[in-house]
Amino acid sequence: MTIENDAMTGAEARVRADDRGHVFHSWSAQGLIDPLPVAGGAGSEFWDYEGNRYLDFGSQLVNLNLGHQHPDLVEAIEKQARSLATIQPSFANDVRGELARRIVDVAGETFSKVFFTNGGADANENAVRMARLVTGKRKVLAMYRSYHGNTTTAISLTGDPRRWPNEPADGSVVHFFGPYLYRSAFHAETESEETRRALEHLEQTIVLEGASTIGAIVIETVVGTNGVLVPPPGYLAGVRELCDRYGIVYIADEVMVGFGRTGEWFAVQGHGVTPDLITFAKGVNSGYVPLGGVVISKEIAAAFDERAFPGGLTYSGHPLACAPGVATFEVFRRDGILERVKDLGERVVRPILEGWVESHPCVGEVRGTGLFWAIELVRDKETREPLVPFNAAGKDAAPMGVFAKACKDSGVWPFVHFNRTHIAPPLVITEDELRRGLKVIDEALSEVDALIA
Ligand SMILES: Cc1ncc(COP(=O)(O)O)c(C=O)c1O
Question: Does a structural domain hold residue 155?
Answer without folding.
Answer: yes
